[in-house]
């Protein structure tokens, strides 16, 4: 006997409408509700026929996830968040990697359209806006992390100005009065926006100028040499990335400075392998990448349902406090 | 006028059969041939109708890629290699993340089957064999990185014994005579196999016992303290991971030992953010993860075509030589 959606709903203790939403990924539900429905469907062996349903409804219940970021440091958590929000139900996720190649991107988008995806999520490794995407036919698109330069497009990004402000406000709350900022290349919007916000948040406590360089531990170490020469009374360093902050901590220790007693240090990204391995572990800004992915998926479901949310939505990051500012 | 496959083939300078293979992902072609066909298809605007073709051929031209590894350090390069081999043509890749949860895995597999995938690739974060997978209906499955405990299954893995042997043989070639081995938990097969092979390769030059601990920089630093106390004449340390090796290099430097002049150090994984940021950069074993993914995709295409390759296929890793053994 074929298991019906009402059986699943009864076992999960929800209405059939909620069970359907959870399994179709067509509504925003609480994670534990969705989880309960999925487990009930699994326990009963509920199997919808994806292809058959796609043909009858005119929908494929499939979404394309297109990334330019082969390495995956930023896009992987975003993909997982989106996949979690979409695929918990019956929305399947087609993964495409463009490797930063516009020809490959066009090729993937054409194939996704040929497969009649219900929508597309586009992400990348940079926060600078990307050129508008040319879809072969109109299909809902949501940009995440890397926004679209088209103001009418739907984009979800992390609020970098807010992240840098959080870190520097924390340093000021600790009573620091000579706060330096060390970051990546000035031409990267992520470096420029964080720096501008850090300077504003530090106010009279800013120990300038902003030190632009590259996104590496090596640059963090070099910057400490410069800083200790030109600004020996620096008592805090806010960094544009965890890699830079890790290099800063190493160089401070090797120069005989204690972190955080003499100099407090903040990172940016909350990249666990860097932030936790640093000596000491880093206070840092968490970009909430999985949350970005979940939000993008939600916006895509809204757009598919005919309720797009054009413009740029910025999600607030979160400050994670560890020993590099808090002592032990 | 509809563009035909023969037009694409003519522009790419290949036979229609080769163009079809490249676009369908049904044969193993040279990367540049496939690339040429894709660019020709793109230039002409060639668009196959995925769903229509799926229904007429009884195939969906879709493959499921199921990972237990949310973090993505190991699975991401594997996914990219597989995606590259499959999706360059018309094989679409459905991404599923099980988060190490058997219920979620069953749920995803059931959905993939409902969508009539042509096959499934399963990967994970551990090299220990996993329990056989129970597919709801017979669909070709290839395991990669994490092999199946079922000897009749198709598994593609990195040859860990060979990797550890390569690293230690390199240290012996450099004339090192007191070679220690520092690695992760003994219960992990990756640690146990690498250790066994390192000991065998070092022969009389082995400075035992194997130091088992965890996969962290902190353990690498602690192990150096132990080693310098019990075996002060150690002149090489082969490590079970890049994170351990990075900690080893830091602790050696802080103990006044020069790397590689006094003690040569090798890592394992060639994880760029660790291996390159280490002071000095690490000589290490590259697992060739993208190649594993490409091979798994090829084996899956073979299995779909009715030519499965049961058993475990081990791919040889590659030694990457940098300053931690080679000086500068």
Topology:
The structure is a homodimer of 328-residue chains.
Chain A: H1 5-12, H2 16-24, H3 31-44, H4 50-57, E1 62-67, H5 75-87, E2 92-97, H6 102-114, E3 119-123, E4 141-144, E5 154-158, H7 160-173, E6 179-183, H8 189-202, E7 211-212, H9 217-230, E8 236-239, H10 242-254, E9 264-266, H11 272-275, E10 284-286, H12 289-304, E11 311-315, E12 318-320, H13 323-326
Parallel strand pairs in A: 1-2, 1-3, 3-4, 4-5, 5-11, 6-7, 6-8, 8-9
Antiparallel strand pairs in A: 10-12
Could you state the CATH homologous superfamily of the domain at 160-287 and 320-326 in chain A? Response regulator
Strand percentage of chain A lies at: 15-25%
Query: C-alpha Rg of chain A, in Å?
Result: 23 Å
Strand order of the largest sheet of chain A: 2-1-3-4-5-11
Mean pLDDT of chain A equals 88
Structural class of chain A: alpha/beta
List SSEs of chain A in N-to-C order. Answer: HHHHEHEHEEEHEHEHEHEHEHEEH
Predict the CATH topology of the domain at 160-287 and 320-326 in chain A: Rossmann fold
Level-2 CATH architecture of the domain at 160-287 and 320-326 in chain A: 3-Layer(aba) Sandwich
Low-confidence stretches of chain A: 50-56
Which term fits the overall shape of chain A? Answer: elongated
CA-CA gap between termini of chain A: 61 Å
Domain HTH lacI-type (chains A, B): 3-57
Pfam families (chains A, B): LacI (PF00356), Peripla_BP_3 (PF13377)
Keywords (chains A, B): DNA-binding, Transcription, Transcription regulation
Protein name (chains A, B): LacI family transcriptional regulator
